[in-house]
Amino acid sequence: MSMAMRPDQKFRDQPSLFDAPAVVPGPAIAPGPVDANRGVDQGTKSRNETYREIASELPGRCRIWLGRIIAAGERGVTLDELSASTGLPANEFSGRITELKRRGMIHHTDQRRPTRKGSTAAVIRATERARQPHHHPQGFDDMTTKTLPPTDLPDAITNNRVPRDQHGDLIKHGGRYLVPNLGRVEIHYDVDADEYFFFRPGRPDQQQPVSMLPHQTQSWELVG
């Protein structure tokens, strides 16, 4: 006569949830000595050297946004104002701003200004060290200047081939313009390339950089 198996019979001799974990023999080689000072700056670099090292590692697109914030002067600038001046949604470049803050190049002040959507946004300023030209890496000073009024952004300096419309404003991302010898074109700004591109309506796959246009192409009439 066969005996019926208890429901828990098949689980016997298996590890229990409350059993001590099994010890697996490890290698018989003891770990070597650990250098406690590895990766620690012992103060051999000056603050200026550290600053130049950080600034030189900034991606080019971060430097460009830093140049715009420096140009805003003591008045500072908000993300919404940067968005309005470039025609780009803030979420397309906010990561660059976060990186600049993490590196100590900018700071958010306690001041706030209204946004276009009726809320308020913190005013951003460049740190004092970011404003000192003699600390900048080679080529950085080409992106900004101390002679700019606080309300101007250095787009025309960072790319002096950026045209202006009939109102004197720099062309913007998403704007539609009437240009001699080109007809109607639409503008797209590529954040990573820091370059304005134009294309004819309905042909976004045939974009061309604005900087390649003849320098005498000055008349850009904003039509939408």
Helix content: 10-25%
The CATH topology of the largest domain turns out to be Arc Repressor Mutant, subunit A
CATH class of the largest domain: Mainly Alpha
**What structural class should be given to the helix and strand makeup?**
alpha+beta
What coarse outline follows from CA principal-axis ratios?
Answer: elongated
Oligomer kind: single chain
Query: Can you tell me the CATH superfamily of the largest domain?
Result: Winged helix-like DNA-binding domain superfamily/Winged helix DNA-binding domain
The total of helices stands at 5
Termini gap: 94 Å
> What is the gyration radius calculated from CA atoms?
29 Å
Average pLDDT over all residues:
70
Let me know the largest β-sheet.
Answer: 5 strands, antiparallel
The spatial strand order of the largest sheet comes to 6-5-4-3-7
Spans of at least 5 consecutive residues whose pLDDT stays below 50 are 34-40, 134-160
Q: What letter string, H or E per element, gives the SSE order? A: HHHHEEHEEEEE
Give the CATH architecture of the largest domain: Orthogonal Bundle
Which band does the percent of strand residues land in?
15-25%
Biased composition (Polar residues): 205-224
Region (Disordered): 28-47, 128-147, 202-224
Task: Explain the overall architecture.
By secondary structure, the chain is of the alpha+beta class. The protein has two domains: 111 residues, Winged helix-like DNA-binding domain superfamily/Winged helix DNA-binding domain (Arc Repressor Mutant, subunit A); 47 residues, no CATH class. The chain is built from five helices and seven strands. The strands form two sheets. The protein has a five-stranded antiparallel beta sheet, with no helix packed on it. A hairpin with a 5-residue loop joins strand 1 and strand 2. Helix 2 packs across helix 4. The longest helix has 12 residues. The N and C termini lie far apart (94 Å). About 15% of the residues have low confidence.
